[in-house]
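task queued by scheduler; priority normal; single chain, no ligands, no partner chains; default sampling; output format set to structure tokens
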Amino acid sequence: MDIRIALAGNPNCGKTTLFNDLTGSNQSVGNWPGVTVEKKEGRLRGRGDVVIQDLPGIYSLSPYTLEEVVARGYLVNERPDAILNIVDGTNIERNLYLTTQLIELGLPVVVAVNMIDLVRKSGGRIDLARLGEALGCTVVEMSALKKLGSREAAEAAVRAARGAAGGELPHVFTGGVEHALARIEESISGLVDQRCLRWYAIKVFERDERVLEELSLSGDLRARLERHIAECEKELDDDAESIITNQRYAYIGSVAAGTVQKKTAGQSLSASDRIDRIVTNRILALPIFAAVMFCIYAVAMGGWAVSIGTMGTDWANDVLFGEIVPGFFDTVLGALHVAEGGWIYGLIQDGIVAGVGAVLGFVPQMLVLFLLLAIVEDVGYMARVAFIMDRIFRRFGLSGKSFIPMLVATGCGVPGIMASRTIEQDRDRRMTIMTTGFIPCGAKMPIIGLFAGAVFGGSALVAVSAFLTGIAAVVVSGIMLKKFRVFAGDPAPFVMELPAYHAPSAGNVLRAAWERGWSFIRRAGTVILLSSIVLWFLQGYGFVEGVFQAVEDNNDSLLAMTGSAIAILFAPLGWAGDMAWKAAVAAVTGLIAKEEVVNTFGVLYHYAGEADLMDDAGGIYAAVGADFGAMAAYSFMTFNLLCAPCFAAMGAIRREMNSARWTLGAIGYMCGFAYAVSLIVFQIGGLFTGEAAFGPGTIAAAVLLAGILYLLLRKGDQGRACRLTSVAAMRA
């Protein structure tokens, strides 16, 4: 029978690093039943009978976020054989808050003090034996990043699981609270599992709504319990939840005083502290962040000697999908005696190879970008960025927690939108969902790469400007939306820990880059493949002189006919001429998946099927660059970066909003805002470049710009003051 070990711990405590080390490739990723929170589990390497369950990173077992609900639901209802609690040794007091709650569940608990190397390096010391004696459980040390003690921690958890009994409960609370808890335990003893009786009693004392609903207490019993709680509140002159929180921290403080020795104030600052004095400086923080992002995009998507991502993409576009793959299929089709002008040949070369190849050609840039982002994330810098952006976001009425979903969205918009559930306030969460899609995700990077190479000479500034455009759209939207009553009010508080800087783990970095890149590649083999076939058919066939047939000029195709009907809507954005219907179709297919934009251009421009494009070193760049002026290209790019995300992300919006009205409102706002900004970009920017002439479009752009400025500057609804819902979060 399998032994189930649950990994539990605070965010940034090293839990994921440990999980990857323990399971290696023996892991699977899905979602918890009924929710969109990621579920990871795997088998301990070398021990096929031990299942490691990675729980979401949480600060407590209070039901304030969906992650906390999922984690405590698994621990209370599924009851794993043991809990391996990962504790950040550099911030042990804050981490032990969760530990005390885990012990109360009545499950075998092993505490693994992580980052012990950093503790010792800073001059600190932790007496593991005394800490274990105080907590009533086994305590071990490890450094997950350096893979020291990880296996020993897992084996300790296995031994604890075989013991099948929880340790002695520590004496956390004072006499008055213990007296009330004893009465509650006596009253609910027959209603809950005896092993977690103490935990249920504490939750009843805190008036935990989910627990009270689960227990279905009678009116008389509930009234009796309420009297016990009220008496304790009166005695201690505080509310029940605050009493529990304060006494937990008082107990943790006493335990730490006897077991944890930190460096004295007279000792020099740690390396992390010295670095933070610079990178989190109020003046230098933003320029440093902008410089870091510029360097990342320069290496991944620039046109310089260091731009290895662009080198890889140029080779993939010009050689791999420009010569090798088409040549291979030419040989295969020739051997099968498939006529070059036939529909089978066209389907494979002009449809599948051209469409899928146009997307896959950007994989090198994506992998380099994801690799660099994974490095700066693994070293601990991205946590500082969240701290930096919190100061900015709060000035504009946004929650600092909003930056976390936006950071996640740089990889994919779907988990970015899902990450918004950590925001307690409904209004802040909804506004974050409505704006997270503005951040350029991995699927939008090929659009940026295409136009940067085709129109702007491969400039890295285009990619940086796209990222900054997304940030600006978030800030502007936040200011405007916060002025409306439905979003008004103080943003929710943002509490986070800054992990110590450390060298990136090659395994973690490569795994993170590959997971993000693979999701990009996988879509090319599914959705992109099918849509390429559909696009090839629609652009290759049409009615000529009333007869349905294959067309030589795709301007006569069904796709052109459909695209031309909607192209008039985008004419004010500068999408004009022969490319108008192509741009319109690409924008619409981008709603399926943003990679579809490049895929559509690949099919419509016969990227893999035209000899003149094969000979051109720029590949598809030459064809696109010939149709788009600078402002028209930037208008097109801006619209596709800011408009509604892909169908998958729309589905995530629907799940997180849990309202059809709010979902449609969010999608409508994103599309409307994207159209307005793109119109302003082309009509006003085009006046300076000569691409646009003064006319009705210019007037409309000026009116929209004035409207945006008015919404930014007007005095909005003040709303109601924010009420803190998590005492624990604020006392930390």
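post-processing summary
- The CA atoms of residues 312 and 364 lie 5 Å apart.
- The chain has a mean pLDDT of 82.
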